Amino acid sequence: MTETPNVDPTNGVPPVPPPPAVPQYGAGPQYGAAAPQYVAGPAAPMSDSDQRLWSTLSHVGGILFGFLAPLVIWLVFKERGRYVEDQSKEALNFQITLAIAYIVSLFLMIIVIGFVTFAIAWICAIVFAIIAAMAANKGEAYRYPVTLRLVK
């Protein structure tokens, strides 16, 4: 009789391996033990087309979300490309200037002139953001007129 490997000779059934060990509650690293250190490397630089895309989105996002879109894009991508950093900062500065103009217009709505200044600021926001988005899509640096440069 030939014997097959890994078979119990008494009953002819292969042995069952033991179940894997189940970690016990609180069986992690002990208190005071050094935690594993994870260090993030530098972010990879963006391609020119990606920088143009995110720059365009920072200008157009200002129309839809105010200063939040350029702020998020600037914070996330500022170290990955000079062009996207410059254009998102420019869009952020313009949106902050517009927010100030809207607030001033709200106070001026007590007298009728506030409605006019609010409409002018809103129209300027749309027109200049579209012009800036088209320039950013071409890869050109755009500077908004009459903008406070608060973020440097």
Task: Write structural notes for this entry.
With 152 residues, the protein is mainly alpha-helical. The chain has a domain at 48-136. Helix content is 53%, strand content 0%. The protein contains 4 helices and no strands. It has helices at residues 48-65, 68-77, 82-108, 113-138. α1 (48-65) runs antiparallel to α4. The radius of gyration is 30 Å and the shape is elongated. The N and C termini lie far apart (87 Å). The mean pLDDT is 84.
Strand fraction equals under 5%
Structural class: mainly alpha
N-to-C series of helices and strands: HHHH
Overall helicity: 40-55%
Residue windows where pLDDT falls under 50 for at least 5 positions: none
The biggest sheet, with number of strands, parallel, antiparallel or mixed sense and barrel status, is: none
**Average pLDDT reading:** 84
Radius of gyration: 30 Å
How far is the N terminus from the C terminus?
A: 87 Å
Total DSSP E strands: 0
Number of helices: 4
Shape: elongated
SSE topology sketch:
Layout: H1 48-65, H2 68-77, H3 82-108, H4 113-138
Question: How would you briefly describe this protein structure?
Answer:
By secondary structure, this protein is mainly α. The chain has helices spanning 48-65, 68-77, 82-108, 113-138.
Question: Which properties best describe this structure?
Answer:
mainly alpha; 152 residues; 0% strand
